[in-house]
ubiquitinyl hydrolase 1 (Populus deltoides), 617 residues
Amino acid sequence: MADQDEEDLRMALRMSMQNSPPEPKRSKPRDAGAPVASPEDLRRMKRELMAAAAEKRLLETRVDSPSPSQSPSPSPSPSKATVDRSPGKSTDFVRKEVDFGLKEGSSGKELSSEEANELFSMVFGSGVSNDILAQWSNQGIRFSPDPETSMGLVQHEGGPCGVLATIQAFVLKHLLFFPNEIGKVTSNVPQNLGSGELSKSQYVALDNFSSLTEDAKARALVKSMGEILFMCGDNKRAVIATLNVVGLDTEGFAKSEIIAKALEGLTIESASDLQKILRIDTYTSQTTALQKLHTALPVFQSRMGALLFLISALLSRGLDSIQADRDDPNLPLVTAPFGHASQEIVNLLLCGQAVPNVFDGRMDFGGGMFLKGISMSVEVGFLTLLESLNFCKVGQHLKCPKWPIWVVGSESHYTVLFALDTSVQDENELEERESQIRRAFDAQDQSGGGGFISVEGFHQVLREVGIRLPSEKLDHLCSTGFIVWSEFWHVILDLDKSLGGLKDSSGLMGKKVFDLCHFNGIAKSDINGSHATSGGETLVQRPRLTKLRVSVPPRWTPQEFMADVVVTSGPGGKESSGKDTEVTKPEPSQHAPLVDCIRTRWSRAVCNWVGDPPSIV
C-alpha cells in the first residue's frame, strides 16, 4: 500500500508541473542510455514528495472533519491538476479534462458563457453548417514545404483564406523588407513592432525564397501576428487566444504531440465547445506578447490556428468595438453559404477596424446615415476583381499602401500580390498628375464610388486642379447634368499640358516597367513544377508563385503602346531614361483575371508571365 501511495504521489507531482504532461506508468525500465539523476536531484525530489504527501494528508483531514464554524476550504491551487477518479467518470472523460485543463494548470482567462455565445454568434451566426465550422477548425498557419514557395502559408480549406492571405502579406513585409530585423530577433528578446527606418525608394528585396531558414520564417510570422493584434488593439493591447491545454510550456516536439492528442476527435459545433477549449491572455507589452506568440506558435500551426488567430484579433479589438465598426452588425462575419471571410474580417486584419467597405473615409447620406470605409493609411494594401467589374471602388489608402504588397480579392478567394522593389509605388509625372485630379474628383463623388459628380462639384474640381477647358468641351461634359469620370479623363488626356491636361507629344511621360509576384496558397497542379518520370511529366500539387513583368505604356491605351512606343527596361526592371532611348517591341500581352485587378492600380498595365497563368481562385 505504501508503494501505491508513493506512486500516486509521484503521478500527482508530475501532473502539477505545467511544463510537461503526466507520464504513463512504465512497465519496463528506461532505456540504458537515459540520463541518471544526480544525488542532488534525488534529494530535491524526495523533499517535493514529502511536501506533496503532507499537503494530501492536510486536505484529507479538512474533508473528513469539517468545522461548522469554518468557511469552506479554498479550492486547490490552479497550478495543481486534479483528476476525478470517481466510478461514474469514464477514463475518456478524465483524459479530456487533463488535456484541456478546465481551470487546471493553464494560464489565462476562460471566456464566460455570455462572451462565448456573443463571439460564436458574431463569427458564425445562428444557422451555420457543420461544413463551414469544419473548414474553420481545420486550417493551421503553416509554411509551404516546397522550396520555391517556402515563404508562403499553405491553405487546405476554402473558408479562412482571408485570414491567411492577410497574415501572408505582413509576413512578406518582414521577410522582404526587414530581413536584418528578423535576423536579430531571438525568442528571449523580441524586437518592437515598428516599421523601422528604411529608404523605401531604393530598396530591392532578394527573391531567393528557398534560402529562407525555418527560424527566420517563424520570427517573421510571430512579428506579423503581433503587429496585427496590436493594431487591432489600437496599439495598446493584444489579446492572444490559445488552447486550454496543459503542457504548452513544454519545448520541442513534445508540445506538438500534446496539442495533437488534445485535438483528437474535437469538433467545434457550438459556443460551449469554444468556451471549453479557449484560454485568453491580454498583453500591453509588445515584448511579452511576442514571447507568448513564440511559445504558442505550435498551437497556431495546429488545425485550429486560423480560427484562434481570428478570435485573437476580434478580442484585441473588443467585441463591442467590432459591432460599432460594422454597417450591419446582425450579419455573421463568416459569410454563407460557403464560409468565406467577409470584407470586415480582411479590413480588421489590414487596418485594425472591422469596417465593411474599401473606399477612403466614410460616406454620408444625411439624416445621420453613413457608410464606413478605411480611415487611415495602411502597411499592406488590398485590390479586388470586383472593382474591375464596377461593383466597388477601392480607395487610395488600400490601393497605395506603405509597402508594395496587396491582398487580392476575387469572388471566392484571397491571394497576395507583391513587388520586390519598393520603387513600383513611386509616381512618375503622369501618375502624380492623375492622382491629383482623381483625388479632387473623388472628393466631390457622392455616388459611393460610381464615378460621377454634379456640375457644381465639377467646377470645383477644375478650379482646384487648375484645368482650363475650352468652352465647347466644358458645355459638352455638363450637358447631361452630371459628369462621368471616364468621359472627363479622355478629355484630359487630349488636353494640352499648358491648359492643365496630360497631352504629351513625346509619348514618354508615363512609361514604367517593373516586376510583380503573385502567391496563391491553395495547392494546385503546377506544370512549372512538374517532375519528369519514365511515363512522362507528373504534375505537382503545391501553392503557386508566379512572376509577372508589368509594362505601363506611355501612351493612353495598350493598343497605342503596342503600335509605336515600347520602353527598353534597364537592370532590375527599371526603365531607361532619355527621349533618344531605342525602343523595342514587347512580348504579346497576356490576360488573366489578376491582370484586371492589377489594372485597378495601374490602369494601362500590360502583363506577361511564363507558364501557367496566375490564378486568383
